[in-house]
């Protein structure tokens, strides 16, 4: 696209069904890196439900046209152009064969057909198939595919595509072929092929109905020792979807392939999922506990797409959350169920741990998105580049919108809705409304108001007022819903109140839940948590027989993606942290307590006032630290302070330096005030023996390593350095080794340290041949503390020149550049603007290679208007620089929306 061309805006309201339908596709590939010949034979007919078109317009990009024929005869009435190919004077039903050439070796976008480590891969979602051949590349055109792959046998011994292998064999000149057939109709974005030198871990399992299934995890030969966990995760996913949703694997064969050059996490291509190596490869030496659980979650996510996404797909890309929100919800539930295999007490706590982690991501990232120029509803109304709408809102808020059906109707009611959804829509391309109607009809409810969750951008704010009438023993909660100042986009488009499931409990002076009886009810219910259906702009709920003035526990388990405003005192929050029966809200109380304190301190730091920490906070955190009745995983989460980015977001004017000073001050105070306790916890939560990636063992490691991180904050970090060095040397797993290295880097910031430099050197040499571990090596350095004498930007710039660094590999670019720009706010937002200059350079450099990745990095500055004036001006200048130079539609959409 030329610099001056105004990008076209695609609108949901303009949806029209396709003029033609494609029923079958036969693809033949002659795979050669620079010149792959693709022959595409399609059975096409007019769509009876669309307006009659005179010609057929197919999408195509970066393709070289060779020839066309219709019903076997050469056809000259075709015109290939920049965006595709026009076929004139077509009959009502015909077979069209198109031959074209694509250059996979030169494809750095990682969309379409590309080469990675000498092997061929494809990525077609959202609009990559048009870079392979001309097509109606839109999800409401569903066809069955037969794929023939031909390639040099020595260079590409393995040839894979979707579905079942029909036949394979040798060809002349050292070549061979394989023919695959996918029996299920699918949209083009689910097509995939893989060719190259790969090996597989294989397993045969029986599905619920007794059919045998072949499962494979394909990797490069040297990675075969890191596939067991992915395979186990796949087997667990298959079982879980049968048990929880009655959904069985529909193919005889299911494959996962790992690739190191990949734009996102993974892709759910029918029967042939393609994964970023980061979400497949793991063994104790190379992967952390977080990696292990991410792999389980992503394997589950892609597998669950087989039903929610593939069997029932999206009518158009505005419906993306139909598959993504639902599938994120399913993977979250899967992980929660997997983590809570144990006793019921452990059970509750383990589920809460997962919930807390998910909510933390939502609040940190999605709430921020909702407060900036990219704010959009779960079902967007328009886009310029669809790849920019694979967002926190579509995925994470979308998942909350699905979760609320389950909160309203219970697990059984939710299952009834899912069953009806598949009964009605299996094999179709549908909308978010279709899903909502299935939930409504299966539960006998009118969910018209619920539609607003899909169409309204912004984070709702609920203010809570309470009144206790001691003489009548009545307690009234008055809820008001609206949007705060941050969500101006939301206020402008406000459509009326939302249906909000608002879960609450009332806590008595003894710390126990009180019985709940709403006015008008015959008796108190046995449940001490109630889901109030809050549907009005303002609405009151009165409880009767309330023996004493209760303390309200609001929005239990985070029952809706909203902000709750209620004036708790510090003592009340400390009480909730100690007593709430809802584990999520125990954590939440601690976070509120800390956030309030940290924001006050940040204001003091911004104005140069002295900092002082309220003893209530130290005492409350100390109690959690030493409460052995709480699970270690929960304690680790409760003792972790809200992130700097989240805190800066809460300020009237974001001031990263002030937030950093405040947070560092509190970390140091907690470290020194509780030093003996941290040391004791460090010793008590060791996990001797062989490494186990279980939630229990992981919880001990997390808490122990948090203790180490706090100890590293002390003005004299000698203890931490001694412990970290010993831990680094003795570690039999990456969780402990990386945590030790990180603690050494922290200690080095206050004291300087040969230990940190030694460990960094050792770490590199030890893992030189493990790219995913070298990513950690870059990331740890990019996220480190930094000093006046040695700002992190200098280290980052030096690392950009390291022989192991390359901008072409997205994981590597993310490990160094994104870690610095998005995960080290105090250093990135340096007062001299050095971070922003670096950001602009890298966005522009990436733009020429990989627009999708460049656009993600471009978003690091989108909240610029919310910062202090000095930073704001420099951020704007950097954005303008990028806006003047960026070429891709992807980056332009982001920076132009930011500057608008
Ligand atoms: N559908 C994929 C998922 O969420 C994500 C995805 C969308 C993707 N576009 C992509 C992955 C481009 C890689 C590249 O599971
Ligand atoms: Zn997905």
UniProtKB/TrEMBL annotation:
The alphabetized UniProt keywords are: Aminopeptidase, Hydrolase, Metal-binding, Metalloprotease, Protease, Zinc
Annotated Peptidase M1 membrane alanine aminopeptidase domain ranges read 230-450
List the molecular function annotations (GO) for this entry. alanyl aminopeptidase activity; metallopeptidase activity; zinc ion binding
Please state every residue range assigned to the domain named Peptidase M1 alanyl aminopeptidase Ig-like fold: 458-567
Which reaction does this enzyme catalyse, per its entry? Release of an N-terminal amino acid, Xaa-|-Yaa- from a peptide, amide or arylamide. Xaa is preferably Ala, but may be most amino acids including Pro (slow action). When a terminal hydrophobic residue is followed by a prolyl residue, the two may be released as an intact Xaa-Pro dipeptide
Residues in Aminopeptidase N-like N-terminal domain copies: 88-190
Any single Pfam family the record assigns to this protein: Peptidase_M1
Which cofactors does the annotated protein need, by name? Zn(2+)
Record has Hydrolase as a keyword:
yes
Q: Which InterPro entries match?
A: Aminopeptidase_N-like_N, Aminopeptidase_N-like_N_sf, PepN_Ig-like_sf, Peptidase_M1, Peptidase_M1_dom, Peptidase_M1_pepN, Peptidase_M1_pepN_C, Peptidase_M1_pepN_C_sf
What are the EC numbers?
3.4.11.2
Matching Gene3D superfamilies? 2.60.40.1840, 3.30.2010.30, Neutral Protease Domain 2, Peptidase M1, alanyl aminopeptidase, C-terminal domain, tricorn interacting facor f3 domain
GO terms (BP aspect): proteolysis
The segment(s) forming the Peptidase M1 alanyl aminopeptidase C-terminal domain are 571-900
Which EC class heads this enzyme's classification? Answer: hydrolase
Alphabetical list of NCBIfam families matching this protein = pepN_proteo (TIGR02414)
Family statement: Belongs to the peptidase M1 family.
Q: What is this protein called?
A: Aminopeptidase N
């Amino acid at each position: 696209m030329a610099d001056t061309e105004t990008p076209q805006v695609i609108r949901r309201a303009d949806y029209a069904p396709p003029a033609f339908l494609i029923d079958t596709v036969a693809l033949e590939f002659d795979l050669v890196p620079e010149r792959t010949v693709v022959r595409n034979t399609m059975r096409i007919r007019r769509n009876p439900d669309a307006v009659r078109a005179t010609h057929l317009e197919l999408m195509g990009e970066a393709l070289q046209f060779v020839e066309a024929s219709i019903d076997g005869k050469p056809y000259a009435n075709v015109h290939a152009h920049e965006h595709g190919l026009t076929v004139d004077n077509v009959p009502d039903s015909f077979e069209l064969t198109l031959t074209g050439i694509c250059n996979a070796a030169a494809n750095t976008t990682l969309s379409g057909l590309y080469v990675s480590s000498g092997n061929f891969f494809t990525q077609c979602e959202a609009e990559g198939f048009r870079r392979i051949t001309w097509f109606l590349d839109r999800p409401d055109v569903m066809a069955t595919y037969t794929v023939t792959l031909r390639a040099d046998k020595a260079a590409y011994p393995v040839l894979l595509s979707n579905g079942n292998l029909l036949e394979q064999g040798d060809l002349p000149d050292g070549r061979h072929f394989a023919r695959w057939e996918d029996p299920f109709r699918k949209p083009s974005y689910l097509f995939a092929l893989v060719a190259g030198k790969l090996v597989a871990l294989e397993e045969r399992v029986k599905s619920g109905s007794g059919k045998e299934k072949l499962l494979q995890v394909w990797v490069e030969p040297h990675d075969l020792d890191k596939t067991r966990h992915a395979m186990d995760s796949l087997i667990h996913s298959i079982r879980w979807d049968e048990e929880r949703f009655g959904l069985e694997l529909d193919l005889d064969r299911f494959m996962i392939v790992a690739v190191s050059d990949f734009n996102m996490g993974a892709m759910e291509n029918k029967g042939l999922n393609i994964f970023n190596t980061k979400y497949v490869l793991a063994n104790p030496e190379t992967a952390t506990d977080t990696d292990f659980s991410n792999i389980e979650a992503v394997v589950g996510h892609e597998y669950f797409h087989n039903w929610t996404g593939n069997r029932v797909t999206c009518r158009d890309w505005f419906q993306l959350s139909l598959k993504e929100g639902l599938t994120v919800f399913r993977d979250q539930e899967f992980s929660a169920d997997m983590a809570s295999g144990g006793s019921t007490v452990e059970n509750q706590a383990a589920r809460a741990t997962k919930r807390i982690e998910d909510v933390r991501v939502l609040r940190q990232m999605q709430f921020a998105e909702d407060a900036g120029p990219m704010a959009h509803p779960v079902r967007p109304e328009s886009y310029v580049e669809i790849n920019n709408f694979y967002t926190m809102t579509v995925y994470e808020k979308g998942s909350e919108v699905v979760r609320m059906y389950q909160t309203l109707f219970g697990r059984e009611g939710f299952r009834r809705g899912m069953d009806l959804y598949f009964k009605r829509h299996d094999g179709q391309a549908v909308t978010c409304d279709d899903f909502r109607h299935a939930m409504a009809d299966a539960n006998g409810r009118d969910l018209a108001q619920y539609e607003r969750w899909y169409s309204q951008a912004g984070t709702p704010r609920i203010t809570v007022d309470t009144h206790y009438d001691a003489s009548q023993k009545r307690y009234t909660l008055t809820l008001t819903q609206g949007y705060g100042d941050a969500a101006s986009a939301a206020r402008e488009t406000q459509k009326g109140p939302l249906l909000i499931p608002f879960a609450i409990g009332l806590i008595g002076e003894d710390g126990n839940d009180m019985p709940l009886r709403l006015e008008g009810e015959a008796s108190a219910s046995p449940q001490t948590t109630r889901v109030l259906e809050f549907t009005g702009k303002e609405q009151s709920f009165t409880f009767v027989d309330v023996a004493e003035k209760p303390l309200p526990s609001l929005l239990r388990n985070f029952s809706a993606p909203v902000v709750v405003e209620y004036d708790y005192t510090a003592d009340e929050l400390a009480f909730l942290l100690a007593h709430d029966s809802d584990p999520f809200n125990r954590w939440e109380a601690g976070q509120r307590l800390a956030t309030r304190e940290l924001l006050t301190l940040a204001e003091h730091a911004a104005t140069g006032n002295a900092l002082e920490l309220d003893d209530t906070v130290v005492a409350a955190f100390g109690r959690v630290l030493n409460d052995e009745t709480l699970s270690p995983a929960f304690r680790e989460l409760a003792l972790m302070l809200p992130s700097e980015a989240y805190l800066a977001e809460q300020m009237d004017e974001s001031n990263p330096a002030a937030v950093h000073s405040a947070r560092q001050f509190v970390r140091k105070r907690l470290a020194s005030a509780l030093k003996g306790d941290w040391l004791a916890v460090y010793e008590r939560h060791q996990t001797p023996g062989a490494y186990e990636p279980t939630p229990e063992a992981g919880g001990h490691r997390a808490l122990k390593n948090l203790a180490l991180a706090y100890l590293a904050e002390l003005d004299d970090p000698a203890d931490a350095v001694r412990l970290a060095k010993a831990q680094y040397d003795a570690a039999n797993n990456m969780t402990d080794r990386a945590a030790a290295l990180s603690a050494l880097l922290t200690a080095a910031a206050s004291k300087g340290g040969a230990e940190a430099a030694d460990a960094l050197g050792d770490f590199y040499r030890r893992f030189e041949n493990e790219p995913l571990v070298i990513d950690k090596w870059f990331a740890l350095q990019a996220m480190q503390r930094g000093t006046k004498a040695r700002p992190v930007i200098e280290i980052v710039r030096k690392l950009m020149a390291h022989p192991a660094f390359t901008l072409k590999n997205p994981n590597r670019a993310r490990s160094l550049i994104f870690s610095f720009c998005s995960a080290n706010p105090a250093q990135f937002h340096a007062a001299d603007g050095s971070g922003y200059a670096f950001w602009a350079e890298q966005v522009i450099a990436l733009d020429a290679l990989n627009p999708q990745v460049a656009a993600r990095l471009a978003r690091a500055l989108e909240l610029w208007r919310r910062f202090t004036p000095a930073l704001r001006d420099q951020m704007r200048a950097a954005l303008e620089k990028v806006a003047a130079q960026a070429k891709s539609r992807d980056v332009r959409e982001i920076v132009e929306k930011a500057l608008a």
